[in-house]
């Protein structure tokens, strides 16, 4: 009985601790937004995003997006991965804050 309780307690602690960690939905492959425009067509245009290692600070404008595929620096993201975040990028820009954990913002 004591072993079962300790096992259950360990599981509860592990699950509780994981609830307080923050991680990106995909991974740490960051694609920076390169345009200075805040227009919807530009925010949602894959041509305005390139792979970079540097992320951004806090702010109210879209800075970039984290995606699953690691492409060489300067390359555009995988289209299907980017398309799954297009709407969230625009919502983030409109709200001035990330709409999901994959989006980074800047001043």
Strand order of the largest sheet: 2-1-3-4
Radius of gyration: 18 Å
Weakly predicted, low-confidence segments: 12-23
Q: Alpha-carbon distance between the termini?
A: 56 Å
Give me the count of strands: 4
Domain count: the total is: 1
Percent of residues in helical segments? Answer: 25-40%
Structural class: alpha+beta
Provide an overview of this structure:
Residues 1-19 form the signal peptide. Keywords: Signal. The chain is an alpha+beta fold and 107 residues long. It has one domain (29-105). 34% of the residues lie in helices and 19% in strands. It is built from four helices and four strands; from the N terminus they run αβαββααβ. The protein has helices spanning 2-18, 40-43, 79-83, 86-95, and strands at residues 29-33, 49-52, 61-67, 103-106. The protein has a four-stranded antiparallel β-sheet with strand order 2-1-3-4, covered by helices on one side. The protein is globular and about 30 Å long. 20% of the residues are buried. The model is unreliable at 12-23 (pLDDT under 50).
Question: Which features characterize this protein?
Answer:
107 residues, alpha+beta, 4-stranded antiparallel beta sheet, 4 helices
Structure at a glance:
This protein is α+β, with helices and mostly antiparallel strands and 107 residues long.
What's the topology here?
Elements: H1 2-18, E1 29-33, H2 40-43, E2 49-52, E3 61-67, H3 79-83, H4 86-95, E4 103-106
Antiparallel strand pairs: 1-2, 1-3, 3-4
